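Batch manifest, entry 17 of 40.
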Amino acid sequence: MKKQQNKFVGKIKIIGVNPYVSVPGKILKSLFSAAGKVRGKIPVRMKIDGHEFTQTLIKYSGSWRLYLNTPMRKAAGKNTGDVAEFEIAFDPDKRKIVLHPGLRRALKNNQDAREVYDRLSPSVQLEITRYISNL
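Output type: structure tokens
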């Protein structure tokens, strides 16, 4: 991570089934400034105890949260309730999720599936594509 770093120590909490860490207000202000916005998703590069990841900072239920998926927590050896050192910076790089070749073939070979997929909202298509690509 070569961009300006914002470091903090945080406790990993959980809401529903989603582990997350709260980002301190001073660091949020720095990220908002770098992103040029205070709304919507904020793409970030981050580290958990030195393990680097890309992620998206999201406001949910009135609070900004940095969600920590299973691969992230496993790589860092952390779980809910644990305290970790975090580094976070705005990531200006464009993110593009490429359709997995298996999904592409399946949609090409099954017109009904393609029609259902095409009717989904872009955000749901993205989540399906991301999920399948990460299997």
